[in-house]
Specification:
It catalyses: ethanolamine(in) = ethanolamine(out); heme b(in) = heme b(out); choline(out) = choline(in). Helix content is 82%, strand content 0%. It has 495 residues and is mainly α. The longest helix has 40 residues.
Amino acid sequence: MPAENGAVADGEMKEDDEEQRDREAEAGGGGPAAAAAAAAGTSRAEAATRLYRRRWLIVLLFSSYSLCNSFQWIQYGIINNIFMKFYGVDSFAIDWMSMIYMLTYIPCIFPVTWLLDKQGLRVVALLAAALNCTGTWIKVSSVRPDLFWVTALGQFTCSLAQVFILGMPSRIASVWFGSHEVSTACSIGVFGNQLGIAIGFLVPPMLVPNIDDMDQLAYHISIMFYMTAGVATFLFILVVTVFEEQPATPPTQAQAAARSLCPEQYSYTASILRLLHNRPFVLLIVTYGLNVGCFYAVGTMLNRMIIEHYPGQELNAGRIGLTIVIAGMFGSLLSGIWLDRTKTYKQTTLAVYLMSFVGMLVFTFTLDLGHLWVVFLTAAILGFFMTGYLPLGFEFAVEMTYPESEGTSSGLLNCSAQVFGILFTISQGKIIDSFGTRAGNMFLCVFLLIGTIITGFIKSDLRRQQANQQVNSAELTNHVEGEASLLTVLNKTDM
């Protein structure tokens, strides 16, 4: 990414220039006061900004523990029939192992968002990693057919960790990254979550075969749980030792302005009320919930869809889920890079939403053709656009709600997604039981079409871009005025 490397170099050169200017001012006899005056002379139009290399470490560490958490969201559902047999429960109980992630989020998001605004990124990251680690070890102790309630408790604990995770990508992007790379950074943050879901589709069917020997089945399940717990523990240690709150110098003018706001001036309740009176953002809340809710339903029901038409293909059901998410990861990264270069938030969001609807339609009518390679192909098309929509919604929300907290806007989007995810998962499951998979998928297609239409009515009000452009314009004006003053002095000297 040449543009990003250039940004790092520019930031470092800028700091070197400032340090050199400080040394020259002090050498001139003015001491620190003169150095401060010299620095102030260059920053009347803009605050000092800098990009740090460690920003990539922060976002990658976040992506890693987000991956570990999202892996567990789907690890039960993708081998639904195997866990039903092991714990002696029905399919609806196993569906709730996925839906608990959605249900927990709804009441918890508001206190967690308040905590993010008041205490910052590091505290929230520590709590997320700690809860995720705790949940994995609870599951390790649940590998007995009579301990379904224990494994459910472990999943509930991991679902609490997810509440601390989902609102962070856009916040990390704004706090650590330059204005030309925030969308890419947000995409990387979402990328980890998607990769975890992809691994969750792929690994459980490989580690836990569909066998009748309960002792052997318990052994394979315990292997999966121990591996997850080991990774979660390692990541928790890394978060404790490596994760930082924010860079010493803000990366953008918009972030510098946000830092200048006194905590006493900020009201969390007032912020939510302002967001809910922002009509374009309210429309985005609805459309984001419809799209991501459909994705949650497809992920939860995928095992049942595939097994109905291709009996005994649990492993391929996982691979199809993997295909959906891997394609979506490419979609997310490409859309993030595209947004950083073009800033066409409304147009890109609408195009991706429309193609999500088309992809779901194609997937619906090719699922029962009897050719698995066709299902893989159509699943890739669906995933590229539907999963690729996730970071688009986050970044579009941050743009139209600046200078409100990124965590608050992201939290409202995710809350909508969880509500629709629960409704769609339960409804689609009942429709599949009564009318088959095609009817269940058509149910989702209808809501994707509605979401596409509503997206067309969202006004593109890019407030964060406007804030950065205003500062840049002021800087340019001061630069021109400074050159004009210098030219006047030179002319007088010549005379």
